[in-house]
C-alpha cells in the first residue's frame, strides 16, 4: 500500500480535527508512530487502528502519553 494511501486511511480512522499531533512514517514495511496523546487508551487505540489498516507491517509505537492534553482528537501528518 503506498504511503499516501496509508496516511489517508489512518487519518480517516482516527480523525484529523483535534489538537493532538501524531506522525507516521513508513520504511521497509515498518510503521513508526510518534507524537503525544492524552491517555494510554488513546495510545493503544491508535496502535490498534494502524495494525488493522496495515496488515503485514511492523508497528513501532513511540507515541507518548501526556494527561495534560485532555480530551481531543488526533491530527495525523
Automatic annotation (TrEMBL):
Superkingdom, natural source: Bacteria
The protein's name in its UniProt record: Transport-associated protein
